[in-house]
Design the sequence.
């Protein structure tokens, strides 16, 4: 590609053709203010904070949407630029609810940071916010229109990234708003609760529903036995909240922090990820050998489940009947675990730490009940766990490493890689291959299904049968495979779908600013965890063997069916238009 | 002696716009016949260049140049759009052409299509002109029937179709890229540039967008030559212009005038003066997004160059006369009300700027303005002008900014009331 010579604030730069002014300035360590720009999204140029002066241009130029040209001279810090940028910021602020001290994004808000940068103290504008009512009646997300700055990042995430098309813009001028159609609350739309909107929101306009106080209450309740499980993707992301290097593996410190918070037992969801492989792998073998519905599609991602139940409910038979690892854990906690510890199921209080906002929704599903009680009582996102740790005054970085407890403390490398796109597939193949062929895999590394490509496929020869598999992440990519199945043209036996781009490491509940670069680092760490573990195949997990011997019997057995499998149903969404038109 | 002329409007009231036969009787379609059977694309572009006509929608971009660029863009499939979303308040000259001479416009589109190599043309008609739909549809149909539209027009290799598309009432859809979004069925919000619409416009195809008057004028150039056109006007603004004269004048209406006559001649000689012999307070040129002038500009010749010197624009050709019964602030408020209704809301400066400035203007109107209100309004008006995404936000505060400049005392007085 051609290189272009430009000057930014008198600094000579050589950048490739097709670079924007904003990106070029970064190379000179100049951060041009911006709010709608997001490195993983399309250019929007609607916040207008990034205006700069370009020599020869009468008008100011938006840096995010303007490409460099040979000899371009950019000034990012003239009086005019500064005055204009500050003015635009004041305009945004004047229609933004300024309850910053009580906002979940306090200290982690891009608007707040810019106001600090521009030293905005008092303006002549009236601070009165025109907004829609709060949307907080679903279990996962809270949308506060009074804080929305209309940057459209969430719309991009919902429409282009996920192709869910729930969030959109409505009306115009001062009534312009970001909302689902007809301003419906999210639970009355086809929202899948993946939380990708919350993950890209620069302010506190879309956040996870904070459930930390429920957990504190349980911990302080003497009658409750409070246990916690942590998903595979949390341990490579939580460090972000404590300013550690992106992708840091902080498993030991995380366990130590959870113990200090007062949980009675700290367990690993990697364990039930292994259990999922036992059940799901057996289900796949059963479907292949007994002419079952193929391709079989994974069912561990609740955002994905919400999607297929909403939009492709005629393909529900393709879903594995397995509950997700979170719910398998929950079911065991209220049955096996309660029994062996002689605690009443209702007194076990099960908390999940998940990278995911849809898990909150999943835990509320009426079918996720074992022995008459909710399998998982509260789901916290990675962000909420970070807030609990901070709130308890725990200095995270200085903690001594601790270890997960038994009986759900051992997870194999196969369970660990559930956190990355392609991980479930790879873990399943490690086990299925060995069970069906009686031989170990030639290599444990399925490179074809690793990495951030949206669509990945591979095939494996099992006893002379070519088994084709596919892996997608991001719901837009999932649509392609679903359409293939609809046409009866799917060549695959097994498909892994993760709702969020990158898989769970890119979940909607992960620390803010999980850009693609950050996700790549987390994925690297996930595979490092796998490589460093002595056990890397689910069926070799000794605790799993013990669980089947002592309690479950065998995969797909009666007990397994009762506890570990479920049914899916259509999200029969009917709008009441009469009501709407009132 | 009348000061109006008839070059672009020469067919007005000369034939029945419902009948192509009636149009053919006055030498209709000689321009199309001449263009596609005797002229090359380059020759037509040169004719447009020799007339030095500038776009009549408001942006005043050189038409010959625009066509030259459109013809040069590579592409087997191109589109010509006639922008008939005449949304500027106090602008209705395109309506006159559409209702009195629709065939001349259709000829202009066919010639444009032939020149730039397009196969399809779209007329984007503003929603409020829905009463003209059947007239235009009929004109397209009859033109098809006579073989001036459709496949292999007049036995040549050139094929061209025209489609009529109605807007949904948004002013911002007069902006080229927004208009295209609207035809595509999306909400009317401007597109990011690049890519430019000349390369990637409607349905991602190279697209030429021209105003109604521009296209009608080109037909006249081809039919009558440009000599009779450029004999009018000044050196820098040759030719004629159709204006929409409205407001507190005795004879509002559409008039074709030669460039170079003064605003006084337009308002008093053509328009019959201010109603009830009231004193002229101000006039606004070029629609709601145009600036205003006081009576001191009455002797300014109506040309691109002379108006620019006094801070005014030709724009859409609207001339709104306001007499001294109206307070400047009330006029400013009426324009502000318009823009707060018509901003698309996409970008911060236009959405939030209009919101805040409207609050301040309301305080002025009600006599409750605060100490810094005037400075604040002016500051944010300038931010809108400099930072907005599209022309709507950039020009929405032209009225306020020019009013503050021209009538400082009125604002000072209002400010004093508020204190």
Sequence:
């Amino acid at each position: 590609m051609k290189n272009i010579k430009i000057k930014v604030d008198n600094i000579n730069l050589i950048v490739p053709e097709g670079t924007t002014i904003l990106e070029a300035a970064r190379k000179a360590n100049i951060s041009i203010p911006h709010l709608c720009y997001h490195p993983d999204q399309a250019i929007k140029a609607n916040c207008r904070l990034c205006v700069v002066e370009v020599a020869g241009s009468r008008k100011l130029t938006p840096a995010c949407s303007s490409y460099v040209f040979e000899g371009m001279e950019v000034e990012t810090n003239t009086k005019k630029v500064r005055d204009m940028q500050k003015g635009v910021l004041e305009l945004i602020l004047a229609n933004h609810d300024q309850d910053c001290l009580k906002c979940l994004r306090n200290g982690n808000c891009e608007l707040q940071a810019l106001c600090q940068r521009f030293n905005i103290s008092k303006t002549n504008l009236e601070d009165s916010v025109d907004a829609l009512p709060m949307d907080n009646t679903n279990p996962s997300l809270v949308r506060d229109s009074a804080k929305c700055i209309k940057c459209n990042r969430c719309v991009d995430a919902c429409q282009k990234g996920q192709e869910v098309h729930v969030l959109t813009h409505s009306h115009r001028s001062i009534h312009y708003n970001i909302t689902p159609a007809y301003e419906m609350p999210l639970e009355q739309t086809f929202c899948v609760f993946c939380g990708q909107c919350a993950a890209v929101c620069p302010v506190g306009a879309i956040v996870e529903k904070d459930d930390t106080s429920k957990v504190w209450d349980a911990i302080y309740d003497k009658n409750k036995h409070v246990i916690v499980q942590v998903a595979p993707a949390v341990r490579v992301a939580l460090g972000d909240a404590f300013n550690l290097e992106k992708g840091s593996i902080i498993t030991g410190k995380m366990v130590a922090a959870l113990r200090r918070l007062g949980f009675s037992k700290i367990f690993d969801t990697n364990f039930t990820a292994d259990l999922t492989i036992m059940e799901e792998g057996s289900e796949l073998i059963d479907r292949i050998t007994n002419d079952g519905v193929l391709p079989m599609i994974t069912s561990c991602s609740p955002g994905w489940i919400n999607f297929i139940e909403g939009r492709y409910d005629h393909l529900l038979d393709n879903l594995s009947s397995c509950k997700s690892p979170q719910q398998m854990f929950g079911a065991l906690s209220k049955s096996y675990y309660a029994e062996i510890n002689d605690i009443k199921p209702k007194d076990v209080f099960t908390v999940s730490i998940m990278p995911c906002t849809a898990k909150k929704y999943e835990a509320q599903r009426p079918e996720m009940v074992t022995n008459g009680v909710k399998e998982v009582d509260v789901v916290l996102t990675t962000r909420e766990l970070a807030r609990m740790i901070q709130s308890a005054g725990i200095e995270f970085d200085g903690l001594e490493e601790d270890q997960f407890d038994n009986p759900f403390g051992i997870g194999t490398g196969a369970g660990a890689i559930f956190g990355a796109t392609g991980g479930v597939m790879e873990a399943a193949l490690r086990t299925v291959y060995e069970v069906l062929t009686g031989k170990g895999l030639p290599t444990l590394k399925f490179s074809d299904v690793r990495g951030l490509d949206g669509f990945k496929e591979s095939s494996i020869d099992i006893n002379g049968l070519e088994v084709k598999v596919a892996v997608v992440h991001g719901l837009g990519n999932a649509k392609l495979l679903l359409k293939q199945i609809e046409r009866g043209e799917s060549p695959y036996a097994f498909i892994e779908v993760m709702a969020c781009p990158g898989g769970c490491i890119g979940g909607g509940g992960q620390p803010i600013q999980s850009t693609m670069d950050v996700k790549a680092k987390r994925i690297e760490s996930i595979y490092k965890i796998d490589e460093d573990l002595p056990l890397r195949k689910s069926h070799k997990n000794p605790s799993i063997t013990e669980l089947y011997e002592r309690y479950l019997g065998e995969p797909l057995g009666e007990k397994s069916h009762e506890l570990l499998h479920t049914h899916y149903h259509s999200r029969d969404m009917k709008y009441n238009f009469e009501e709407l038109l009132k | 002696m009348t000061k109006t002329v008839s070059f672009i409007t020469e067919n007005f009231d000369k034939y029945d716009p419902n009948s192509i036969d009636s149009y053919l009787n006055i030498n209709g379609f000689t321009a199309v016949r001449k263009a596609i059977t005797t002229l090359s694309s380059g020759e037509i572009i040169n004719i447009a260049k020799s007339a030095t006509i500038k776009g009549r929608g408001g942006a005043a971009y050189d038409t010959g140049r625009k066509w030259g660029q459109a013809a040069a863009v590579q592409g087997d499939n191109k589109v010509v759009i006639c922008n008939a979303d005449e949304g500027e308040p106090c602008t209705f000259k395109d309506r006159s052409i559409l209702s009195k001479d629709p065939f001349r416009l259709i000829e202009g589109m066919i010639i444009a299509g032939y020149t730039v190599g397009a196969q399809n043309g779209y007329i984007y008609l503003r929603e409020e002109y829905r009463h003209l739909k059947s007239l235009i549809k009929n004109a397209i149909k009859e033109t098809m029937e006579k073989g001036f539209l459709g496949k292999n027009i007049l036995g040549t290799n050139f094929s061209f179709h025209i489609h009529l598309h109605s807007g949904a009432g948004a002013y911002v859809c007069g902006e080229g890229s927004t208009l295209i979004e609207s035809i595509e069925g999306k909400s009317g919000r401007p597109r990011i540039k690049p890519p430019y619409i000349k390369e990637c416009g409607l349905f991602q195809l190279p697209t030429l967008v021209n105003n109604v008057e521009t296209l009608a004028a080109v037909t006249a150039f081809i039919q009558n030559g440009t000599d009779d056109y450029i004999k009018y006007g000044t050196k820098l603004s040759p030719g004629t212009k159709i204006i929409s004269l409205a407001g507190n004048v005795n004879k509002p209406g559409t008039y074709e005038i030669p460039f170079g006559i003064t605003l006084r001649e337009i308002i008093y000689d053509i328009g019959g003066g201010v109603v009830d012999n009231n004193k002229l307070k101000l006039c606004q040129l070029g629609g709601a997004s145009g600036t205003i002038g006081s009576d001191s500009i009455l002797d300014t010749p109506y040309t691109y160059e002379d108006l620019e010197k006094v801070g005014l624009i030709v724009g859409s050709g609207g001339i709104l006369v306001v007499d001294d019964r109206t307070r400047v602030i009330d006029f400013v408020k009426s324009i502000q009300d318009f823009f707060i209704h018509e901003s698309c809301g996409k970008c911060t400066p236009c959405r939030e700027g209009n919101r805040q400035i409207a609050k301040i203007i309301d305080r002025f109107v009600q006599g409750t303005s605060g100490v810094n209100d005037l400075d604040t309004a002016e500051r944010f008006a300038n931010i809108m002008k400099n930072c907005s995404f599209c022309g709507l936000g950039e020009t929405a505060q032209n009225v306020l900014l020019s009013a503050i400049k021209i009538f400082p005392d009125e604002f000072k007085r209002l400010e004093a009331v508020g204190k």
